[in-house]
Amino acid sequence: MNDSISNPFGASDSRGVAVRHTDSREDTQVLAMVTSAKRFPRDVVRAADRILNAFSRTTLAEAAEYQFARGGSNITGPSIRAAEAISQQWGNMSNGWSEIARSVGEDGVGVSIVEAFCVDYESNSREAIKFVVRHWRDTRQGGYALKDERDIYELCANQAQRRKRACILAQIPGDVTEMAMQQVAVTLKATADTSPEGIKKLADTFAELGITREAIEKKIQRKLEAITAAQVVTLKRIYASLRDAMSDPKDWFEIEPEAAPAAGLEALRTAAQKKREQKQREAAGALATPPTGEAGAVDPGAAAGPADAPGGAAAGGAAEPAAAPEPAKPVKATAAAMSALQKSIYGAQSAEAAGSVLDGARAVVSAEQLATLAGVYRKKWAAAPFDEAAFVAVLQACQSTDELDATMDAARTSGLLPGEGDAHDRVVEAYRARRAELLEG
Question: Are residues 202 and 128 in the same domain?
């Protein structure tokens, strides 16, 4: 007889050979990392020194802390970049996220089950957070389901970053994280310019956004001349938030209603048109006024030709018309006006209507602000392709390296510029070529 009793503790593995091989390989990797961690445990003193040295770098310190306003108070904390840097220097840890399952909900919309994790191989502790990501993008018109794999991946990755940060910070001792943030403050203070020239530059920078010196002083509760390095760092973060149109001036400063700039696309166009007309009148007046020498005498060659010349004034000929003044460059819109334009793009009833708002803004905003608005349009209307030729034309129109760099930074920050691919590479080449031309000129 071939009857036999099956082992109740044995489980038949019906999975494929490839799956079992993958699991075995992962198990081997984990075992190797655990063995290495036990064999070479971390030296907490050296690890702490490495963390301090890492956050002594200005570039990392500037990205190490997030800040936003909520309920009238500032919310700050370690960013995901800071958490990753601490984990790397602390050692014997790994972190990340993975999509562990995917299905279709009852409403026909796809759903992903994602897990963010952080493992400390030395203490054999693992922090993990599982959450559900619905393949859906909300809009004012009700939203739509995501079908493209890249959109689904970016949605999952975006939501996984916060959970991964929470997992990392749960594994790192709290005093180590606090020590790293203190070093961030020290590093940023060392780079803060509190000299009279630096204070004037800071005030002028905010003035471009329509924020007065009085509003800044009310925010920091002291005169600008008495500003501290920490407050300079805070104002830099606020400026970055306003520059990227992530917040409004009223979120940070007490601005009088009568002092607030007019909002709306039409008001912005009207103000820009008045400025252009004023510049054209000034240019026309400068052309009509003949240049004078050092002694105040009129240069006859500049005012008119010789009296006996054909077509001259003495011959009764009409004077040559003055050259038409060049059109004024687009003005830089205030943060309030930029916010109004963003709301107009988000509140549009269709992609065509939003495109009309964007086209109308081209003549009244700077190249940097145009890149930001284009990124907002692309995020809202995801189906819109990246207009490579139009953006390269914007780069070619930049008249200084500062304007060129600011435009590229705004395009990257807003999401207008693709993170990779042929279009990204061609745009970067055009940017480098234009920068070389400006430096040579």
Answer: no
